[in-house]
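Progress report, Aim 2. The chain analyzed during this reporting quarter is listed below.
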Amino acid sequence: MVWLLSNHCWYHHTYSCFLRCRAFYIVTNASEDRVLLINKPLEWTSFDVVRKVRGILKMKKVGHAGTLDPLATGLLILCTGKMTKRIEEFQAQEKEYTGKMIIGQTTPSYDLETEPTEPVSYSHISDKEILAAAKVFEGEIDQVPPLHSAIKVDGKRAYQLARAGKEAELKSRKVTISKFEITAISLPEVSFRVVCSKGTYIRSLARDFGVELGVGAYLAELCRTRIGDFTLKDATSLEELAQ
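Predicted structure tokens for the chain:
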């Protein structure tokens, strides 16, 4: 199977197909077999998007290739019909994110899903120290997922245990941070760009970044801008898809 990119359109050598670039439809002989690039709205769950697309396309077999937290926006790949067989392939691809962290505070969920702690002083933290702290996390690292996550612990989702006030121990996992670039500093706000492997939690990265600085930090904003060769600029909104 060979894909060619010409004038921003993909062509498949085996099947008759075309691409509508903004929505990134890959439409084969069976019109229900598609890959869609969607710009996930803020406060929507990934399954909210799946459910909405099922309604728009009047199809049941729709799945997403990689969860975005409700408080994150950006690129979400959806597959329909036979293209759902490629979900794991898309999930395994490198991801890119941009976002903002707040230093000097933490939250139980490592983002704004839960209330921040009282702020601590960060006046002694220099720009140089912030840049150096980011470099510590580049390469292969051990990362512990947030307790407020969908990871299962003894058959239950970790976030269910967290919301019930129960303690749970999550094991660390190997992830790769190819790039952790600080793009702007306006304390307490620190903007960044991250390129990372499958399974990386940017919330955990923000939390660990705060630990490295010694003042704490949480994730304030997050946008996924790329999955493999698929980029946010080629994605469509749900409103556009419905037209």
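The two ends are 31 Å apart (CA to CA). The longest helix spans residues 46-57. These observations will guide the mutagenesis work planned for the next reporting period.
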